Amino acid sequence: MEKRFRNGEITLSFPGSGGEPVSDVIEYITFGEGERDLCMIPGISDGLRTVEGLAFPFSLAYHRYAKDFRVFAMSRRRNIPEGYTIRDMARDALAAMEELGIGQNGPIDLLGVSQGGMISQEIALAAPERIRRLVLAVTMPRPNDTVREVLSRWIEMAEAGDTVSLMTDTAERTFIGNHVGAYRTAYGLYGRLNEKIPGGVQGTERFIREAKACLGHDAWDRLPSLNVPTLVLGGTEDAIVSGEASRELASRIPGALLHMFEGYSHGAFEQAADFHEWILDFFTAPDDSVRNMLKFHGPEKDREPFPFS
User: Fold this and answer.
1) Which one, of 297, 54, 258, lies nearest residue 138 by Cα?
2) Of 192, 194, 172, 173, the residue nearest 182 (C-alpha)
3) What pTM, to 2 d.p., does this model score?
4) Who's near 80: CB < 8 A, 6+ residues apart?
5) What are the DSSP E strand ranges found in 125-229?
């Protein structure tokens, strides 16, 4: 089946610092011809490069989703204001979904990775009736010592305009094994050329403001009220948010399922062979059977029932 894809942008009105409305753009991509809507919220790399122009490579990388879903991935607003919070990002994402007609045929499935997972928590808390199932990958419910140290370091690099060191450090913390060298080279080149490619952001202020928003994210006390079937995915060796952050996140959401990718860091979403298998199994299971669904990706002794009631 042919997989259609499209790059797009919408202009919305947002509240300004003085209460006056401000117009700004949110870029998005879409592909797939499934009956249900799936929205993907990317991580903090969005601060340096938006999804502009990425519909075709996204449709290739996530081709397994195209049969079952009409897939959307969206960036944060183009001009991020000072003091912009994760809750603000969630509010704007919900407005963009409304404008684009995402979920017009029923609640959507929502996948958030890293900072996108923080935004997805706030989306689900603000509008649980609009979310069918939720996957939160390599993310956190609130800042911890690991993420404070990492983001403070990245902010210093960004403030100095050193995008090469920023991207190199990102690669070294994100990936494991033989991939590290290749990604270090690729990310370093990306840091040099970022402003010259479609979607590349001029300067580093947008990244800095997104990083500061992560440091201000705290859904800890509100997550126990979340009533959406949720799968939390983490890497045991996550060197950016820590593996413990994923465990804590799952512990705060009633009935959440947790799976940790053993030996993987923050880049489990790219390196773990069965990462998307977990997500697709979770999103495509029939409603009547999800309560009895088994997670089985290993020996018989590792079978555990889904904890949803």
Assistant:
1) 258
2) 172
3) 0.90
4) 47, 205, 206, 209, 210
5) 131-137
Burial zone of 145 (CB within 10 Å; 0-12 exposed, 13-18 middle, 19+ buried)? exposed
Residues in the chain: 309
pLDDT at residue 86 above 90?
yes
Q: How far is CA 246 from the centre of its chain?
A: 14
Which residues touch 250 (CB under 8 Å, ≥6 apart)?
Answer: 230, 232, 256, 257, 258
CATH of residue 130? 3.40.50.1820
| SS3 of residue 244 by DSSP | helix
**Count of domains forming the chain:** 1
What's the CA gap between 131 and 106, in Å, rounded? 9
Is residue 178 one of the residues assigned to a domain? no
- Whether 247 is in a domain gets the answer yes
Lowest mean pLDDT among 41-50, 124-133, 164-173, 280-289: 280-289
Look at residue 132 and tell me if it is in a domain: yes
What are the distances in angstroms from CA 40 to CA 128, 169, 277? Answer: 16, 25, 16
User: Phi, psi at residue 184, to the nearest 5°?
Assistant: -60, -45
Residue 46 has, within 13 A of its CA and on its CB side, a CA count of: 29
Is position 153 within any domain?
A: no
Are β-strands 230-235 and 294-295 bridged in parallel, bridged antiparallel, or unpaired? unpaired
Look at residue 197 in the predicted model and tell me its pLDDT. Answer: 44
